[in-house]
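Entry 14. Ran structure prediction on the chain below.
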Amino acid sequence: MRTITNINANWQFLKAEIPLEKALSYASQGETVNLPHTWNAVDGQDGGNDYHRGTCWYVRRLSTEEIEGERIFLEINGAAMSAEVYLNGRKLTEHRGGYSAFRVELTDGLDRSSEGENVLAVSVHNEDNDQVYPQKADFTFYGGLYRAVNLIAVPEEHFELGRDGTPGIKVTPAVDLVRKTAVVTVESWQNASEVTYEVNGETKTAISEDGHAQAEFVIDNVRLWDGVEDPYLYTASARLSSGDEVSTRFGCRVFACDPEKGFLLNGRSYPLRGVSRHQDLKGKGNALSYEDHRADMEIIREIGANTLRLAHYQHAQEFYDLCDENGIVVWAEIPYITMHMANGRENTLSQMRELITQNYNHPSIAVWGLSNEITAASPVGEDLLENHRQLNALCHKLDPTRLTTMANVFMLETDSPILEIPDINSYNLYFGWYLGELIQNDEFFDEYHANYPDRCIGFSEYGADANPAFHSSHPERGDYTEEYQALYHEHMLKMIEARPYLWATHVWNLFDFAADGRDEGGKHGENQKGLVTFDRKVRKDAFYLYKAAWNRSEAFVHLCGKRYVNRAEEETEIKVYSNQPSVSLYADGAFVGTQEGRTVFTFRIPMSGEHEIRAVSGDAEDRMTIRRVSEPDESYIFNKAAASVTNWFDAEENDPACFSIMDTLGELRAHPKAGAVIEAMMAKNTAERGDVAEAVKDNPALQRMMARMTMVSLLKQAGTDEESIRQLNRILQGIKK
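Output, structure tokens:
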């Protein structure tokens, strides 16, 4: 028999970089914590880029009851970012990689005498280094034992537990859509002579050779795992005569990708339209419970997404299970991100081995992601290319059934040789937010598709930050208003729907998440591109835009601008998002009008005092209150300098023979004196944006894009205060062209 004992409770936590002997002697003076736990739940979310990155200790005594059994293994499901495991003062193993499970056998080191005492000590560290990914990225690298820790007791003859965190059983279904059959190959690894398998009520016994056994089953009239419509799961199990048993769920489905038709599920067009997710939560960091994972999945189902990009690392097994159960097609990836490290190749390969080995059986996973924006801070050199070639080859060796992909940074040239390595590609584009105009997203994909008609291309990231406290009737890029984020996503949704060849699109991000190096948009330590706030309490207006486009099972109407109560205008726009074909609007009980359309409905009403607004479609309705005020509500404006820059600049007299902030960055940099002024200001702004901004600032493609933008647009985007903008303009006006 196999017994799994959870040992999450009663660990002694020591936030101190001390030797093992001191950790053991000081353990009783430590803080008592229960797992999952991270030491960065607070300082990793409050901004300043100063959260604790170092070594901490977790120490726990094992009771006699917890170590009963012939062979005892310790299972750690997540230790960020690296860990060393000690039993009774002896080092057993170390693990590099903060997102995958690993196990180590304790049996020989246990003191099973009547008076024996067994002490586990785990040192966990998330310090900066040049070997373990991630090191540079726009999210917090939480440290801790942030997933469950178990003891697994098995008999002498048992299924494999050590190698790459394997579940011990591997299932490969090959589906014939015409004959409606599936040939299911079940494999296992064990130290026994034979194995009994069971699939769909049928049993077979196989002989084990060199620790490996397998059998084939045929399922007639197979019920397909068919995405959100019918995510049907079968179960395969394997048993040994010793009593040890393992099982796994699997799904029978066919994934494919076509350069014109996009993604295909079970032979039919199935456009993947969804969101990305980070595994953290306000106040908890990445130490999530199953209830937290399940609550996130409920929001994913509410918005109507049929795909998830689980960024930028391996997520919890519980969450992959939820994706299987809910029919969500998954992009799974390793944290090979932003900056290539010459000493990190082996770590990328080991993290990929563990990702595939531990997650192979999940039917929801469609693609393995090799890297994310890896050329943002690194040139496309031979070492980087060879790293990707080896990763790609490893993926196909371990799993010939799935495709490989990459998320490429928007500055990467489309003729780069790195794009030829994975099976399919995807791009992260932020035109209309970080720089450029929204229409450039359309132009990018049109040009790419025209130049490379035989390649599958997707849209792996796009988004705009929004703080629900900020509002405007005239939103613009960089103002962090809920209204601009909504306009941005309205454009992007139309762009995507007009290009069915995009094999997958993923909004960045479903939830706001911690990026301790950020300090912008009125919040410290957060990336606010989420459609939902970090604490999951507020669904921003843009959330309902996608719900209107993707969720057809629940009739609803949503009035945008509920938080934009005070409006200083004679007439205001009322916007409604709905998945219904028509919407009627009422103001103070009076009928305003009915509109027919899809997703977005807009009305205009006069403002005089306080107004009760109601939107109706059939049985669905929504209400809000707005009021006319005499002056704009200053609390709604994040960047007051940006709101007034255009007005004061137009009113000032500037000498056209001299430089000004209306010149482009390229023009200014081309002049020695003006360029020196600009470089000094940009260095200061980069330092305030955290380590990722510092790492990517010299990217040549990014610099070319920025060179075409006016200085004033860059300053407004950066949130530069009005007086600093005025001062810069005065300095530039003193420099003749």
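The mean pLDDT is 94. Will compare against last week's run tomorrow.
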